[in-house]
Amino acid sequence: MAVLQKEERYRTLIELGIALSAERNHDRLMEKILHGAKSMCNADGGTLYLVTEAKDGLRFEIMLNDTLAIAMGGTTGQAIPFPPLRLYDDQGQPNHKNVSSHCALSGATINISDAYDVDKFDFSGTKAFDLKTGYRSKSFLTVPLKNYEGEVIGVLQLINARDRRGKIMAFGPAITPLIEALTSQAAVALDNQRLIEAQKNLFKSFIEVIAGSIDAKSPYTGGHCHRVPAVTFMMAKAACDATEGPFADFSLTEDEWYELEVAAGLHDCGKVTTPEYIVDKATKLETIYNRIHEVRMRFEVLKRDAVVTYLEGLISGEEEPLALKARLDEALAQLDADFAFVGECNVGGEFMAPEKIERLKAIAQRTWTRTLDDTLGLSMDEMRRRTGDEPKPPVVESVLADKPWHIIPHEINVDSSKYEAAGFKMKPLENRYNLGEIYNLGIGRGTLTNEDRFKINDHIVQTIFMLKALPFPKTLARVAEWAGGHHEKMDGTGYPKGLKREEMSLPARMMAIADIFEALTAADRPYKKPKTLSESLKIMSFMVKDQHIDPDLWQLFLSSGIWKDYADKYLRPEQVDEVDIGRFMPKAAE
Ligand SMILES: [Fe+2]
Ligand SMILES: [Fe+2]
Q1: Cα–Cα distance for residue pair 410/412, rounded to 1 Å
Q2: How far is CA 147 from CA 57, 190, 399, in A?
Q3: How far, in Å, is the centroid of ligand 2 from the Cα of 298?
Q4: Separation of 72 CA from ligand 1 center, angstroms?
């Protein structure tokens, strides 16, 4: 019998070792350790403590007692009401009176056959407990949990070993090494879990830092990288909660929630490559600063030229002063009007109808005379864009121009085959940027040229490149797909891959909605007021109609009240107006 019992114990030990190394939930791990140890020596009760973060105490993790039907901590849902056992007193002296703290401090296993016969340790608390409950705490086996560095990270205490008939006995010498073997495996499992947790926390903080730094790039889109995950999570939660309809079977495991968190947090990480002046390009002539000042000075020069012409006319006396003055006034008024028009074009608030473009081109015909060398004081980069055979001053210049050196070429290694190979439909344009003045002032809508727009859209390509370059573990394998699809449209007209609805995962489609909703309700451009909630939802309902966003998810977005919860939490009170969601439901929109 005894041999079999021994075999059973070894088997339990091996099985526990395997189970412990596979367990990733902290509470369940605690429970497995205590349950396993208890059953190996048929103990009536036990407690598992972990050393506190400050390393000054032993925190109760789980407590079990069969006779008294006590089960606290672990996954029981019953909190343990006791404060941690102190390892040191107020004077900083080690507490060797308590058997558990002595075990933690010394790293030694302590086997006590009857607590009532021992003087070395203070069992007064145990005795008081026994008096109150009628229990008899007798044999104690207290074993340290040592990690691979030999550091004690916890203490396992077993109480009242029982023989086969249930009679309380001492913990035999044969069991001690087995329990020690178990606690050492438990310590390794616990340490592993802590390392994984620490790594996860480090990565989470890293994502936070990236998201925060992207948000910090623009005061206008600030908070986007934090709010998109919030909306995405709300949607995933609503889909998990759905018991009928298209999401009835949708669920996410703990690992998948983490995967979603990583994907949403990094969904715009490629924006680290987008220059701020493009992200926030507030006027058409803006590069690093608004070049309207440069243009205005040219008009000032022209006005002085007009005055000079007038004065020269007066001096020569060939014409009537009154006629000269009238011509001057007219010239100045025209220059004022022309510059006002250029200024208005620069703001980009209104559509540039063909007649406006014509007027712009006509104004650009005006000339002024440059007498200074315009290659003086240039940077190496600017000089590289000059041919070197520019005419020497004086040079007659147009007041607005598209010059060859306004074209900024790509850096050497921008290779469109890289885009093609990755399955991207969007391709780099011929030039990296075009700073041409007429070219920029003639932008039809908004302030961005095609090149600027490409650079902005390119953030998603960079996001995918960056995420693909990271050696994600298997549990995070879908991060790039989930994060990289938020600018795709259900009908395949989105970017960068032109994916269709059926080619996209649900999390990617959720993120697309989250991204649009956040951007619409935020003050996304420097010259625009933030939209109200109903305006934003209305625009999105048109996007559903145009097959840009997923209709099922849109229905869920509306019916679950995510829009309202989000608005209450994140929008300015003046944005949160009255909304009749019935109008925006896909069925009503048909
Ligand atoms: Fe994006
Ligand atoms: Fe985004």
Answers
A1: 6
A2: 17, 8, 76
A3: 40
A4: 47
Burial, 205: exposed, middle or buried (Cβ in 10 Å; 0-12, 13-18, 19+)? Answer: exposed
CA–centroid distance, residue 452 to ligand 2 (Å): 17
> Which ligand has the nearest atom to the CA of 224?
2
Provide the 8-state DSSP code for 94: B
Instruction: Provide CB contacts within 8 A for 456, sequence distance 6+.
Output: 274, 278, 279, 448
Closest ligand to the CA of 516: 2
Dig out the tokens for 260 from the structure: 């979603």
* Residue 211 Cα to ligand 1 middle (Å): 12
Closest ligand to Cα 265 = 2
Q: Give the separation between CA 444 and CA 440, rounded to whole angstroms.
A: 9
Residues 61 and 50: beta-carbon distance below 8 Å: yes
Percent of the chain with pLDDT over 70: 97
Q: How high is the pLDDT of residue 216? A: 87
- Residue 336 Cα to ligand 1 middle (Å): 41
Query: Which residues, listed in sequence order, are joined to residue 13 by a DSSP beta bridge?
Result: none
pLDDT, tens only, 498-536: 999 999 999 999 999 999 999 999 865 666 678 999 999
pLDDT at 388: 86
Nearest alpha carbon to residue 548 among 517, 588, 582, 579: 517
Question: Any idea which residue has 């701020």 for tokens?
Answer: 276
**Both structure tokens of 117:** 């016969």
Interval between CA 515 and ligand 2 midpoint (Å)? 5
- Structure confidence at residue 526 (pLDDT): 60
Going by C-beta distance under 8 Å and a sequence separation of 6 or more, which residues neighbour residue 495? Answer: 424, 425, 426, 457, 460, 487, 488
Kind and range of the H or E element at 285? none
Distance CA 285, CA 297 (A): 14
Measured in Å, residue 459 CA sits from the centre of ligand 1 at 7
* Å from CA of 267 to ligand 2 middle: 6
Averaged confidence pLDDT in the chain = 93
CA of 224 to the centre of ligand 2 (A): 7
Measured in degrees and rounded to the nearest 5, phi and psi for residue 162 equal -125, 145
Segment holding 205, helix H or strand E:
helix 175-217
- Of the listed ligands, the closest to the CA of 218 is 2
Kindly identify the ligand whose nearest atom is closest to the C-alpha of 226. 2
- Expressed in angstroms and rounded, the spacing between residue 426 Cα and the centre of ligand 1 is 14
What is the mean predicted confidence (pLDDT) over 193-203?
90
Write the CB contacts of 248 (distance below 8 Å, at least 6 apart in sequence): 242
Q: How many CB atoms lie within 10 A of CB 343?
A: 16
Class of residue 523 by CB neighbours under 10 A (exposed 0-12, middle 13-18, buried 19+) = middle
Question: Per DSSP, what are the bridge partners of residue 396?
Answer: 369
Between the CA of 232 and the centroid of ligand 1 the distance, in Å, is 14
Close Cβ partners of 380 (under 8 Å, ≥ 6 residues apart): none
Distance separating alpha carbons of residues 319 and 121, to the nearest angstrom: 119
CA of 468 relative to ligand 1 center, distance in Å: 16
pLDDT value for 20: 85
Least confident of 57-71, 168-182, 343-357, 407-421: 407-421
